[in-house]
Amino acid sequence: MTYNIGYFVGSLSSKSINRTVAKALIGLAPHNLSFKEIPIKDLPLYSPDFDEDYPAEGTALKQAIESSDGLLFIAPEYNRSIPGALKNAIDWGSRPWGTNSFARKPTGLLGASPGAIGTAVMQSNMRSVLSFLDAPQLNSPEVYLQYREEDFGPEGEILNPDTKKFLGHYMEEYTAFVERVLDASAAGHIGDAGV
Ligand SMILES: Cc1cc2nc3c(=O)[nH]c(=O)nc-3n(C[C@H](O)[C@H](O)[C@H](O)COP(=O)(O)O)c2cc1C
Fold it and tell me: What is the pLDDT of residue 193?
């Protein structure tokens, strides 16, 4: 069984270290995962004024989320929280009210920073958001990656064997988690909280 994973890179930077990490994760993933980025950079700022006539950008984002079997977020920490561009995309996907696209989607969350805290505070904030959106989350392992230039090549090659093992383990656990959630959902054990 192949699972379609939609992934968000929570940075608009052309030199994003989180994009490099995303490439590394894709390279390490088990072969039964296929990946498609869910782009966030061209979304307008969300307003409830759009709800009555959702624009094409918002509808496309919702369709990309809904057609994914699982979601992966790879994001920086901005001012100890979620980068605005990513939060904006989440707001688009969560609305109009009653059509929350994230509900019951198995999610994984990672982040990289040059700093020692490695996006831990952003991830804590994100977990609250994903909980509210009724999106099951892989709780463990956690990836708070302190990014060191020497550990990665430009196309996501992982030059540090410990980092490679750690992220490879994450992707195995994430894949097993996606399978578990989808199995439970198919068996009717995960319901709609109606967010
Ligand atoms: C607006 C802004 C706020 C930032 N705030 C934090 C922060 O709270 N914690 C942190 O570890 N790094 C912070 N940084 C540094 C980022 O971790 C660093 O720029 C990193 O490269 C961002 O990831 P990216 O390269 O994938 O965009 C901040 C950077 C910017 C531009």
Answer: 52
